[in-house]
Structure formats: structure tokens, C-alpha cells
Design goal:
Length: 26
């Protein structure tokens, strides 16, 4: 699932798991 989240998020956000973590959860 982590791989899919990275693709949905921007390259700048996928660098930090915590950065896009809240977006993926919500």
C-alpha cells in the first residue's frame, strides 16, 4: 500500500512518510 500512496502524493511529499501519512489516512 505504501507504494500506491507515494504515487498518489507529490514527489516532495512522498519523501517523508509522516508528511503524506495524514493525507493518506484522511
Amino acid at each position: 500500500q505504501k507504494r500506491e500512496c507515494q504515487q498518489n502524493l507529490l514527489p516532495g511529499q512522498r519523501i517523508g512518510h509522516k508528511t503524506f501519512d495524514w493525507k493518506t489516512v484522511k
